[in-house]
Specification:
320 residues; two-stranded antiparallel sheet; 9 strands
Length: 320
């Protein structure tokens, strides 16, 4: 979240007149983030979040609105967009597409404890159960096909050893996915890092920032979570956090045999996905705004750890 397009109080007060959210009281820009302008808005009735979309494919915004509406309707803790009196969520403000959301409670967990890991795993399991019936479609823009097509763009910036590492991994993923067969698919969050969740103590207040949402292999989402939520500084997996997330998730949605077989490769592939995307930002496609890119080395470290130490055993399934 950040502010790239400033807004004035009167401008936002007029904007709010389209909605049944109360009268404007206060506006505060939110620092941080890389893509959109974000503001906290206070009315005499509630706390809201206003987002202006600064870049990206604006024609894809209806998909995100439909996905957030759908998950909210199914009691998944996501901020369902506020619709105006005509029933429309996607608006325009200051010449940019805009969405208004309820402000979810809590803060980002920097070092998630086991209770928070269990809460996140349970919520993701519930999300994936209902998301398999979501009718919208947006192919995963960062799946194996993307890795195959794009990884060559960064090879010239890598050491010979890292070039070999990346090319060999892509080859291995191709073989592993060819053998795996069909995997369960549905709508994904696509970027469920700790800073895209809000907690009040051990209670999950909300899952936010679904603008990487897409449809594809559910296992992809789970691997992203484990690589962020259950990984130590040296890239190795923490068994207690790993099991806390997966115990809760698998109780909601057990893996198929194909998913279990592909799990180690998916952990490596999602690590490579973020190593590659961060390398692209550093060397090939820098951000539109003056922001510091994320360090690619973090996910190179994770990838190396997954290669050297493999995946931890998956927990036994106890369904609810």
């Amino acid at each position: 979240m950040a502010v790239f397009t400033p807004l004035g109080d009167a401008q936002v007060a007029t904007f709010l007149e389209r909605f049944d959210v109360g009268a404007f009281k206060a506006l505060k820009g939110v620092a941080g983030g890389t893509e959109n302008s974000t503001f906290f808005v206070t009315t005499d009735q509630r706390e809201l979040v206003l987002t202006l979309f600064e870049q990206g494919e604006h024609e894809e915004l209806p998909f995100f609105v439909e996905l957030m509406d759908y998950l909210d309707e199914h009691r998944i803790p996501v901020p369902g967009p506020v619709h105006d009196r005509e029933g429309t969520a996607l608006q325009s403000l200051a010449g940019k597409p805009a969405l208004l959301f309820p402000r979810m409670p809590g803060s980002h967990p920097e070092s998630p404890n086991l209770a928070q890991c269990r809460a996140l795993g349970d919520a993701l399991g519930r999300l994936h159960l209902v998301s398999q019936h979501f009718p919208g479609q947006r192919p995963n823009p960062r799946d194996l096909h993307w890795l195959q097509a794009v990884h060559h763009k960064v090879l010239g910036y890598l050491s010979p050893d890292d070039q070999t590492l990346m090319k060999n991994q892509v080859d291995e993923f191709e073989a592993a996915f060819a053998e795996a067969g069909e995997l369960p698919c549905g709508a994904l969050h696509g970027d469920l890092f700790r800073d895209n969740t809000l907690f009040e103590g051990d209670t999950l207040g909300g899952i936010i920032d679904l603008y990487n949402g897409c449809t594809g292999d559910l296992l992809f989402d789970v691997a992203i979570v484990i690589n962020d939520w259950a990984t130590d500084d040296d890239g190795r997996l923490d068994a207690k956090r790993h099991d806390a997330v997966l115990d809760a998730y698998l109780a909601r949605r057990p893996f198929t045999q194909a998913e279990r077989a592909l799990w180690p490769a998916m952990l490596r592939m999602t690590a490579l996905r973020y190593w590659l995307s961060r390398l692209l930002v550093v060397y090939v496609d820098p951000p539109a705004h003056d922001l510091t890119p994320h360090d690619p080395e973090r996910f190179r470290t994770i990838l190396k750890a997954r290669i050297d130490h493999g995946a931890l055993p998956l927990p036994e399934v106890t369904t609810r």
